[in-house]
Amino acid sequence: MKENEKELIDLDEEGNIKGEKEEKKASKSNNTFKILATVIIIAIIICAIIFTLKQYKRTNRIELIIANDYDEMSEKAANIIAELIKNNPNAILGLATGSTPIGTYIELIKKFNNKEISFKNVKTFNLDEYIGLDQFHPQSYYYYMYDHLFKHIDINLNNTHIPKGEGVTETNIKEYEDLLNKNKINLQILGVGRNGHIGFNEPGTDFGLGVHDVMLHNNTIMDNARFFENDLNKVPKKAITMGIRNILDAETIILMANGTNKADAIKNVMENKVDVNIPVTALNIHKGKVYIIVDKKAASKL
User: Fold this and answer.
1) Number of separate domains in the chain
2) Residues sharing a CB contact under 8 Å with residue 167, sequence separation 6 or more, in sequence order
3) Quick check: is 302 in a domain?
4) Which domain holds residue 278?
5) What is the distance between the alpha carbons of residues 272 and 266, in angstroms, rounded to a whole number?
6) Active site residues
7) pTM surpassing 0.85?
8) Which of 46, 222, 232, 265 is the most buried if burial means most Cβ atoms within 10 Å?
9) Which of 257, 277, 275, 274 is nearest to 266 (CA)?
10) Is 115:109 a contact under the CB 8 Å cutoff?
């Protein structure tokens, strides 16, 4: 009888009932799969929650304003700046150069002439300056600011600050960094290059950099050639610029862009990218308010 029972049970070499080991392995494998699947599902849910929260926070920090054209874009930016000055006559502004902000400066001059605002106690800090240009050179950013804004308003020129393009570069960098550390910018105005640069922070710039000197990319040199009689040889190849860290230190930022050649840069920002190869996307990690004011052409890829 015992022999028959042994035959019926049929033990393997290790003394286990044949088939039982395979069942245990299958059961263990199924349990492992279920646990792994559960972990993946939980991870996906957590990621979705984090993404939703980021989008919610970003919506509150970044406000996209699409204007019909350049003039309307300029007016909307000027209105925000003027409101700040009305509420804080001692405001500290970060200013930009190039073709983009000219319309905004014209609107601010109109508001000054209409006695809506005064720049008497306002301080300004510009983003950048070419290295090697005399400040009175027609294409220096000092000359630009004086010609397009300062000479038309009641600002104290001692309260205007632009990086020095002449002299010892290392000394000029340190002096400007020290000034920025002592003066918190309330509102920073920005334009953007077609390669995504802000200030002269070119693609690949470390977001943690402060004031520094930079070799300009070919795209930037080509874009700026129109200010130098379209002669690339006349365009300076180096500049001093606020770093992205300095820009992000501002309480509020206004980014303006117009034209289809800026559409990719705006699209990259609004897709919530953060990429050192697209410097303007650093705005997505700014902790304060950001206004992105664009015309319809710059918004064409949104």
Assistant:
1) 2
2) none
3) no
4) 68-295
5) 10
6) 128, 195, 197, 202
7) no
8) 265
9) 257
10) no
